[in-house]
Amino acid sequence: MVQRIKAVIYARVSSEEQKKNGFSIDVQLDLLHEYASRKNIDVVKEFTEAETAKQTGRHKFAEMLMFLKKSKDVNAILVEKTDRLYRNFRDYVDVDDNKFEIHLVKENEIITPNSSSHAKLVHGLKVLLAKNFIDNLREETQKGRLKKASNGLFIGQVPYGYKKLDKNTTVIDEEKAPFVRRAFELYASGMSLEKVRWQLKNEGFIYQPSNKVISHGQLGKLLKNISYIGELNFRGVIYKGKHEPIISDELFEQAQISAQKDNKPLYRDEHSFAFAGLMTCAKCGCSITAEIKKGKYIYYHCTGGKGTCEQKKIYINEADLIPQFEEAVKAVSLAQKHIDYIKQGLKESLADKKEFSEQMRTNLESEANRIRHRIDKITNEYYDDLVDAKLYNEKRIAWNKDLDEIMIKLEALHHAEQKYYEEGVRIIETLKHAYILYKQQSPIEQRKLLNYLLSNCKLEGKKVSYDYNLPFLYFVNFDSCRKKYPGCDSNA
Fold this sequence. Notes:
Elements: E1 6-13, H1 16-20, H2 25-38, E2 42-50, H3 59-70, E3 76-79, H4 82-85, H5 89-97, E4 101-104, E5 109-111, H6 117-150, E6 162-166, E7 169-172, H7 177-188, H8 193-202, H9 216-222, E8 231-234, E9 237-240, H10 249-259, E10 279-281, E11 288-293, E12 297-302, E13 316-317, H11 318-330, H12 336-383, H13 389-440, H14 443-453, E14 454-460, E15 463-468, H15 472-484
Parallel strand pairs: 1-2, 1-3, 3-4, 10-14
Antiparallel strand pairs: 4-5, 6-7, 8-9, 11-12, 12-13, 14-15
Helix pairs in contact: 6-12, 6-13, 6-15, 7-8, 7-10, 12-13
């Protein structure tokens, strides 16, 4: 009698909003239970959760891995598809290290420790590109916010002392602005932050009805905020704002001079070393740093940040490291016949991306339509004297802000899709010409390529060890496997 497979089910949605709307969890569970029944698989436990890719950790995912590690006779996971199981490479490694059997039901694929190198290659590609797509989406969303900032518009909540009339109009809040002006005047006079806090209270200035005295941290941030001189700081770049200043440039500058007594800037000299920031010490785990000796020779050594380390006394000439990293790059330079296998994986991943994008676009457009309906409804209620002007303006401003954010995400989705296609080409070209490209690049670009290909680079003595990032690990194994055993891709 054949022993039935015992498995767990894992289902995930990417937001609490999707979970509330019954968007995906129930559909996934129905699909997975039907699959288990058809394949005579015993489902011993379900794990479901709704979290985003931005959040740190997944409680149910971690709980599932712990359950599987403790279970002697349960080692299979049933999941809808690749991007439902993995958010990032760490998740992939956690699953792969424990040799679990993965049933990707919608993709009609089962990944096991004994799967062919080709199956693992395609699977690794999907993980890589799914992560790349999410990263690009986040980056493009930030670019949409950047566009607003470059047009002089606040993103999100306005600073204390201002208020929004609508999504594009910010004005001074005459009730709160005097607090800001007086805080700058007191601090610019040389008074400490602590004394400024209590002087404001003594003069009758109220920060908030529920918190009459401003905290030390809040006051420090307020006094460094360049918004009060009519400018915006978005991700370290200064833009001219469309809002009116509360204080003068001179007063702001004087306050910053007063702050210098508490702030000592640190400077460091940085060189374009090819392997700087790439390796850690195999002995103590500290960073490997580089320096120039005798005016022209580059040497690497352990920083010894955790105390005494024998590696700190060993200086390795860059010339001894160059051939080791060159060999690492050579190993992923594949022939055209191998590229054809990779293209197949890219095509399969493209289909997953299309489904995900269409689903996300539909969600965003539906939410935008719901918000527009709310705005139309409350506008009609205002015209019919069913709501007052204050409530109408508050709701309209809030909903327009939400609508604006959705428009940014829709535009970001379009740009992320374009980058996704470029990433597929980039992978192929990297694998076809990796070594040639590497040799032609500057030290900074070489380091970028090494970071793209490698991880966990360690230096012990003069020897470098490293792991390949997924899916390049499978490219290396795939290529060497085919050279040594021509039939191994079919599990010969």
